[in-house]
Amino acid sequence: MSVSMNAPLLSVRDLAVHLPVQGGMARPVDGVSFDIAAGECVALLGESGCGKSMTALAIMRLLPAGARIAGGTAEFEGRVLPTLPEAAMREVRGGGIGMIFQEPGTSLNPVLSIGRQIGEALELHLGLRGETARKRAVELLDQVGIPDPQRRLDEYPFQLSGGMKQRVMIAMALAGQPRLLIADEPTTALDVTIQAQVLDLLDGLRRDGMALLLITHDLGVVARMADRVGVMYAGQLVESAPRKTFFAAPAHPYSVRLFAAMPETAGRGGRLATIAGNVPAATTLHRGCRFVERCDRALAACHIAPPAWRNIEARDSAHRVRCAVMPCDAAATVKVDAQHTVVLSAPTPLLEVVDLKMHFPIRSGILQRVVGQVRAVDGVSLNLAAGRTLALVGESGCGKTTAGKAILQLLRPTAGSVRLAGDVVTGIRADVMQMVFQDPFASLNPRLRIGDIIAEGVRATAGQRAPQRVAQIMGQVGLTDDMVHRYPHEFSGGQRQRIAIARALAADPCLLICDEPTSALDVSVQAQILNLLSDLQRQLGLAYLFITHNIAVVDHLAHEVAVMYLGRIVEQGSTEAVLRDPRHPYTQALLAAVPRLDGTRPETVLAGDLPSPANPPAGCHFHPRCPLASAACAGAYPPPVHLGDGHTVACFAVTAHSPR
Amino acid sequence: MLAYIVRRLLYAIPILIGVNLITFALFFVVNTPDDMARMQLGVKRVTPEAIQKWKAERGYDRPLIWNAQASGADRLTATIFFDKSVRMFAGDFGRADDGRDIAREISLRMGPSLAIAVPTFVLGLLAAISFALLLVFFRATALDFAGVVLCVAMMSISGLFYIIGGQWLVSKMWHLVPISGYAGGFEGTRFLFLPVLIGVIGGIGGATRWYRTIFLEEISRDYVRTARAKGLAERVVLFRHVLGNAMIPILTGAVVVIPSLFMGSLLTESFFGIPGLGSYTIDAINAQDFAVVRAMVFIGSVLYIVGLLATDISYTLVDPRVRLQ
Fold first, then answer.
1. Cα–Cα distance measured from residue A532 to residue B153, given in angstroms and rounded to the nearest whole number
2. Cα-Cα-Cα-Cα dihedral of A101, A106, A108, A111, to 10°?
3. Contact yes or no for A608/A625 (Cβ under 8 A)
4. Cα separation, A530 vs A524, whole angstroms
5. CB contact under 8 A, B3 and A176
6. Could you tell me if A108 lies within 8 Å of chain B, comparing CB atoms?
């Protein structure tokens, strides 16, 4: 598969992982082969449960308890990894192949200092100790772009931000001077501006000659980073191609549908293509193609025998696909009805939020006196009309979730007013406002049957008609009647989010506050939930306050956007205005940082981290990171500038008539 | 940190008053001052006059908690509760019913109690942690399984069996050490050997099982995977990474009991005839000597509160994330 003349750095052949589970043998990796040449970046792309992380862990021989390599091999620099003695394998780990993981927050040891954790890798692989090790650790931290590395060495992981922790992880992985770095979802837990910084860093390392095996579900990250792409489905690679050819024309029906499910590709307000059915269970014994049950182009032959690898010669000899039907044409296969959301004219405000503030006291001393305030939300004003969607966008820690809770009165606001259809809201109004939370696994009571979860909300408003109403709501969100008596753990993530939406709808509200409702879900499942939300809005005239960091989802779903930074709204207006013609430097940087499917890189990457809301920078909160900052910016917070059509920007550099 | 300790010590005052009130109420619900006098005087000499005299001599002729006849502050202070319980805050424990000074008695009996309790605690902790680490190193093997079965068996057997069985086997059959008794100084070690050994064996089953669970929980965490991905040997991963983090929950259970070691063990001291605070308390309960019971409960509460505070402070030593304020 490799086009390189030399032997590949890593060569994986027919790798299989078996894991005994209740009711059979799971095969999370089932015959995976690929090569990585020195200095090359190969991306393994796939949704959760497809076996991409297991493949990486099998190469490193770090499989979870019970799982074992059941077949195939992986050869790294001439060493056959599955049969290597454990002592020699430890040389490879960290010394030949470094690895970084998805959650920098939990992947560093909380009770050892940064210097100690880097130092143990230096001692193990390079034999460095004491002052020399410390000097090298400082160099490594410097290399990954950590300011003031001398001081950071003696700090602990909890003292660093998420982006910093991921840099420390990378520095740790680099300590043993590996030739290959395996990055397992390295930026999934990070904010988009921080993601851009980390991707830049990884890209720089690759240019310096390090090979990269990138494991991700994010097509944007693949487009930005990879030389070659391998698409995984149900434990197997189904397509392998150079990045350019893959993004120009994905060949496998699964790849095609994955693209179509991206909110970026559907256009505003359109319906997203979804993939029917679910990924087959890892215990399934397959006879034919693994995707056949969900494929709309399947032939009779697809059910009988697994498809062989085929070259797509017409395009590129390196583009190979495991499909009997291909090549299929992306545009022709996915039919999406371009049904647009009905936009109500002359909107009257349903929700009016004026100067909302949510401050949390910081206490200290023997008497626990208040010594300061965390200004999580510091003067937010919003308007939302019935049947419309307002997106509240920002990075983690900007206060968007707190704002949502304060509007709902789950938290009592420090100041400001919330009006609903003209009435001032002072307590929880479950009958008109409901919330859908981010994590459908944690937000449903595991001990209640889903019928009871939904009925709880119904009882508050509908009284005796509860059973019929529960059935009706379950129908609306695409759940069937027979699911009433089941418990949340029996459902997939997407179904659970449907249950959470049903629970919210049970009280018959007119406003749903959706807090990152799709960020825990796979792209194809996200598409189903976004479609469901648009359908419900059309049928029931619901208004949504959509709290998210995902710009593509905003672009797809929202009518209006408010961009939040450190407790305040910096830019607000119609989606068209804010996303196509962003005027605030933060909005511009945020949009630029989103990885694009065409693989273009942002011209400027925002430096630094989000400051603490307990101690925000004086004047405009954004000025220390702002490319346009002037002396005035440190002096006072800029008042909003109105640009017409409700587009407002809080920035001194923007004037009502200034050219873009 | 200092502010935190001061605040916690201030919180302790209402807790201790509450503990005193409850002990006081419990004792006098089942036992009136008249009952105490009858018990002390013995059946033959009980006359109403003798009871009154006994009560007056020891201050039990006052109202329990509220003196309606007195005026001003005396309404609260001229009561049994104030006289007997509140004084303990000043370190005045009064006298036992046999006339001995309780404070002096406690200082004499503390030594024997500590001589048993401290070695039992330290050796037990070390043995349980080592045993648990061994099981975790061989996790999911037959050795691990056998170890867990052994632990469950050992914690299912009553502590009395270990004491009686140990005395019979070690002392009676093998004649290694005396069956019971106590002596001070180096000579005393032969009396300590058996109770300490039995204390360690009796506690090891439950503690090992608990520590093993803590270790297994830590070992499945992401940072352990990171440590292995660096190429560290399993031994290093276990000792440097897992042990350090597992010490946090282990400390919660261990440090809190350290001050309470002063109180001694009721069971062990009674069976081995150790003149410590544990047997002192048991004897006082049997003799319905309220003064001693009250003093021991009060000291127990103080030591427990000190233990909780010490736990919080020890967190700052093992967990850099914890800052007390």
1. 56
2. -170
3. yes
4. 10
5. no
6. yes
A57 dihedral zone (left: phi>0; alpha: psi -120 to 50; beta): alpha
Q: For an interface test with B, give the residue of A89, A99, A107, A168 to mutate (most B CBs within 10 A).
A: A107
Q: Are the beta carbons of B320 and A124 separated by less than 8 Å? A: no
Q: Looking at this predicted complex, what is its ipTM?
A: 0.83
CB contact (8 A) between residue B229 and residue A169: no
Classify domain A8-249 at the CATH topology level: Rossmann fold (3.40.50)
List all residues of chain A from 157 to 196 with a beta carbon under 8 Å from chain B.
158, 169, 172-173, 175-176
Q: Write out the residues of chain B at the interface with chain A, using a CB-CB cutoff of 8 A.
A: 3, 6-7, 10, 139-140, 220-223, 225-233, 236, 240-241, 244-245, 248, 318-321, 325
| Residue ranges per structural domain of chain A | 8-249, 351-432+509-522+539-650, 443-508
Judged by a CB distance cut-off of 8 A, whether residue A291 touches chain B is no
The mean pLDDT of A610-639, rounded to a whole number, is 88
Tell me which chain A residue has its CA closest to the CA of residue B318.
A111
pLDDT digits (tens, 9 = 90+) for A185-216: 998 888 888 888 889 999 999 999 999 999 99
Residues of chain B with pLDDT under 50: none
Question: Closest partner residue to B231 among A91, A108, A368, by Cβ?
Answer: A91
Residue A330 has pLDDT above 80, yes or no: no
Q: Which fold has domain B104-324?
A: MetI-like fold (1.10.3720)
| Of residues B241, B245, B325, nearest to A364 (C-beta) | B325
Q: Which of B223, B229, B318 is the closest to A106 by Cβ?
A: B223
Selected for mutation to probe chain A from B217, B226, B228, B325 (highest A CB count within 10 Å) is B226
What is the sign of the dihedral through the CA atoms of B297, B303, B307 and B309? Answer: positive
Q: Where are the domains of chain B?
A: 2-90, 104-324
Q: Could you read off the pLDDT of A403-444 as tens digits, one per residue?
A: 999 999 999 999 999 998 888 888 888 888 999 988 888 888
For residue A343, the Cα-to-chain-centroid distance in whole angstroms is: 29
Is it true that domain A351-432+509-522+539-650 has CATH number 3.90.1170.50? no
What pTM, to 2 d.p., does this model score? 0.84
